[in-house]
Amino acid sequence: MKFVQFVYNEKPNDIRVGYLEGDKVVDINKADSSLPSNLLDILKNGDIEKVKKLKSSNPPSVPLPSIKLAAPIHGNDKVLCIGLNYKDHCEEQKLTPPEVPMIFSKFSSTIIGQKDAVRLRTDVTDKVDWEVELTVVIGKKASNVKAANAFDYIMGYTVAQDISARDWQKGTRNGGQFLLGKSMDTFCPIGPCITTSDEIGDPQNLDIKCSVNGVLKQSSNTNQLVHKIPNVIERLSSVMTLLPGDIILTGTPGGVGMYRSPPEYLKPGDVIQSEIQNIGVLETRVEKF
């Protein structure tokens, strides 16, 4: 299934959860009022299988033009990220891949959805970069999980942009710490949907691409991951409890703006298209804050 969150055009502040049926969306709570109206609560309640059974009853749906897609999950506890986790991204920097996953985080408040705008604070940075990433969505509480069992704790996968202010991330503006360069408002677009694990195929063999204004910037495959998803979950869950709805951005391939010649950065008016096989295309506008 492909889960989405959305608002009706006439009710822009009422976020609903649904799933895609071709060019239509089924509103899960309207089809079964005993189910929550947002995805995080569905995960917390363990209701995914109930939703899958709902699908077999062919509930009513609404056409996509009558709704606006939002971030497919919100209100989650953690947004965790892995740096330098693609072989081709390490190669473009002439770096040896790290022996252990390099983990950092973003605030969950940075999450935005399909066609929402990344808003650039042009008064504090002019070096904002793109990073398309396959993103894991945790489906149930995970603590001390072994790699062999890690996929059992994954609900599905989505597309993310790990938007990054490079002068704050890597320069002197934050002492070499990643947090502020990665966590400015709107710096975590995700979407357009979450594809459940049973429909994703092999998550470590998916084509992944990013274009800016129609020009291809990144093109790779998740088989280039240095640290595989099960090993990452084992490492993370050994030191913290992963909760339903937590997301893990698994790293970006080569082709980011900072390491192009000459370097390239995002500017107001740009449109980013981030695409991952079996999930879809996340479209993100760039505006001035």
Automatic annotation (TrEMBL):
Family matches, as Gene3D superfamilies: Fumarylacetoacetase-like, C-terminal domain (3.90.850.10)
GO biological process terms held by the UniProt record: oxaloacetate metabolic process
Key words of the record: Metal-binding
Domain Fumarylacetoacetase-like C-terminal, chain residue ranges per copy: 78-286
InterPro entries, per database record: FAH, Fumarylacetoacetase-like_C, Fumarylacetoacetase_C_sf
One Gene Ontology term of the molecular function aspect: metal ion binding
Family note: Belongs to the FAH family.
Protein's name in the database: Fumarylacetoacetase-like C-terminal domain-containing protein
